[in-house]
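Support request from a user on the community tier.

User writes: "When I paste my structure tokens into the form, the page sometimes reloads and wipes my input. The last time it worked, I copied everything first. Here is what I submitted, just in case something in the input itself triggers the reload:"
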């Protein structure tokens, strides 16, 4: 599960982070509405800092929580310091652009090992690993799928189901897709050890 840096905001971004929590939330592949506006606001800032936006989610109504999930562009594991830097930068952007008129909370996290598959590059990077996906509209008579990720192109993500059949899911219709935590995935995501030669 990813670490999340959480801060609250009311009429301005606070100068300190409140706490870290563990999260296992799901993801929306397509950012629309308020989430789409926030994604468009923060993605350029993250890119300039050497990060990539993985997902934006806005949860709750009275005191919404804005969840920002990011990766390091260089592929290294994201650190607490990275989350702090992202939190301050994103908080400043949201404070200036003010997309949410009420009190809100910002959570910044890494994608974690059992990460959401929100981009074509995620589907391709984690080909060979187990994932679960859900679509908005039925595909071959169903909306929920589990299988081995086969990759994606700009329009479809592909899975090999338990019965050996392959299915192509229209990415525009994927409600959520997420890797399943397995020993193989943990091993693939473990930091590589370097040999110490004398």
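"...and here is what came back when it finally went through:"
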């Amino acid at each position: 599960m990813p670490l999340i840096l959480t801060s609250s905001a009311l009429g301005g971004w606070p100068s300190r982070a409140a706490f870290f929590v563990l999260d296992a939330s799901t993801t929306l592949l397509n950012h629309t509405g308020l989430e789409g506006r926030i994604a468009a606001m923060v993605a350029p800032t993250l890119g300039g800092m050497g990060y990539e936006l993985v997902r934006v989610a806005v949860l709750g109504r009275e005191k919404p929580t804005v969840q920002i999930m990011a990766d390091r562009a260089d592929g290294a594991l994201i650190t607490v310091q990275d989350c702090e830097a992202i939190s301050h930068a994103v908080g400043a952007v949201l404070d200036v652009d003010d997309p949410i008129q009420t009190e809100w909370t910002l959570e910044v996290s890494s994608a974690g090992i059992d990460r959401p598959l929100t981009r074509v590059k995620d589907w391709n990077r984690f080909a060979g690993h187990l994932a679960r996906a859900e679509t908005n509209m039925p595909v071959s008579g169903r909306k929920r799928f589990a299988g081995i990720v086969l990759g994606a192109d700009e329009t479809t993500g592909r899975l090999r189901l338990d019965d050996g059949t392959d299915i192509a899911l229209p990415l525009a219709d994927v409600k959520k897709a997420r890797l399943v935590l397995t020993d193989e995935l943990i091993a693939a995501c473990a930091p590589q050890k370097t040999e110490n030669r004398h």
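Agent notes: The reload is a front-end session timeout and is unrelated to the input. Confidence is low (pLDDT under 50) at residues 6-29. The two ends are 37 Å apart (CA to CA). Escalated to web team.
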